[in-house]
Specification:
8% of the residues lie in helices and 45% in strands. By secondary structure, it is mainly beta. The structure holds the ligand N[C@H]1[C@H](O)[C@@H](Sc2ccccc2)[C@@H]2OC[C@H]1O2.
Amino acid sequence: AQGSVTASPSQYDGEYDCPVTVGTPGVTLPLDFDTGSSDLWVFSSELPASERSGHAYYTSSSSSTSKLDSGETWDISYGDGSGAEGNIYIDKVTIGGITVTSQAVEAAESVSSEFVSDTSNDGLVGFAFDSINTASPNHVQTWFGNAEAQLASPVFTANLKKGKAGNYNFGYIDSSEYTGSITYATINSANGFWEFSASGYAVGSGAFSSQSIDVIADTGTTLIYLPAAIVKAYYAKVSGSSNSASAGGYIFPCSATLPSLTIGIGSYKAVVPGTFLNYAPNTGSTCFGGLQSNAGIGLSILGDVFLKSQFVVFNQGVPKIGFAPG
Ligand SMILES: N[C@H]1[C@H](O)[C@@H](Sc2ccccc2)[C@@H]2OC[C@H]1O2
């Protein structure tokens, strides 16, 4: 089997949400595909009505194929301080025409305010490694982990776009979605992430600095977070930029022409256009950068600002990650 699903950007490409059908009869919910976590959870009828407002949700008792995963709970905290928790049902989950008949569906009983106010999604689908799934006392598998048996190849690809719909594909690599050749990096999955070593960086037309940068590829993170020294070197080339405590990061005049950012993947030079690095308006005539410091995060993240400039292959079989111009 192979599948494909549309990925729709929220405002400012803050996240990319995809239709996922759960249960019988199916309820289709826009879920945020997240290669930085490994829980599939949904807004549910078990939430207080106040936390469900503005959201669609899953009602296990209305699904003839739903079965309580007795004794199992989940409780997740994300890097941005948000979180959710609840209990678990086993039910059918279809994405892009591929159905997993016995998927652990983590039903929310409580979600943090960030999720209540983010009405672009009604939950998340984690695509990282099972080791960081939060179900307890037993881990549950990701949807992709369960779907792999149906796939010709243990791969999914991300073809995210700036300001318009893209897609995720499952089980195959569509050569029409990229140019040139795909360059792969070995994944270290010890921390449960799609973690690898980038080979260096360049700012605009400047010299490439060869250095190993430990990063994770995270479709659920909006921006790029790199070591402070690299970020400082980037904004040194943006006149009028400053690292603003009040804005929570680097800002610059919206009229600035931003240099591109090149990230090395082996010998491949992945280029993020300067226009992708003006993320969104801040206050007044200042704008907020798509590249920010990883200070306080503990790791570097290649989020959507980077990923939407590339075609990305996530191969869970090896594991390895591949990049090509999108
Ligand atoms: N992997 C990411 C995850 O998908 C989001 S969870 C999220 C929170 C609020 C709104 C939408 C999504 C959070 O930000 C970075 C990291 O944690």
